[in-house]
Amino acid sequence: MFEIAPSLLSADFTRLADEIEIVKAGGARILHVDVMDGHFVPNITIGVPVVRSIRKSTDLTIDAHLMIAEPGRWATEFVEAGADMVSVHVEADPHLQRTLTGIRDAGAKAGIAINPGTPIEALTETVPYADFVLLMSVNPGFGGQKFVPTMLDKLRRLKQLITSRELDVRIEIDGGIDDTNIGDIVEAGAEIIVAGSAVFGKGNAASAIKGLYEKGAVWV
Ligand code: DX5
Ligand code: ZN
Question: CA-CA distance, 127 to 141, in Å (whole number)?
Fold first, then answer.
């Protein structure tokens, strides 16, 4: 079983409520919201107020991906704004265990995001405090980038790490995923699959999601 989580980064920001209805019609249950601060990543997107507005307009699960410096200062504000899942980059937080625990205590699922260049060993101590790992398959900052090919093997090793330690931790993967690689990604163990340009760049976002579900399902 897997879920497609459309990334609103590639949606039309002037029509967010409509875009959300369209992806819901396509079968999405999780909305991936990319928060960027111009420090941790070279781009600035949206923040707490927009998450609060999205919360008012939908009952879908809101998955806030924080690509920000000092995430420990902001993570629980996103939960209070209505995020159901909040992920924090391992590269950005020297007090990750505290931040994850804070997210859980605030009532959301806590995730650790990890960049392509960071070894999975960086998760060793903190993964038991997470509900999910967000494996980046591009260097974060922009939609529409190419999947970093070696991330498929990293995904398999992450799955192995979680299985061998019998942890109750889901794997989410984000970046460069489309109908050409989703089958392999599902087969390698990803359970939540973020897709931005493959959903919103194709004209009809609802049928793009249905297409991704079909392509992924072929292999499971
Ligand atoms: C990249 C973001 C992704 C991005 C995915 O920094 O974290 O969520 O929107 O977009 P695609 O699917 O186009 O790579
Ligand atoms: Zn993301």
Answer: 24
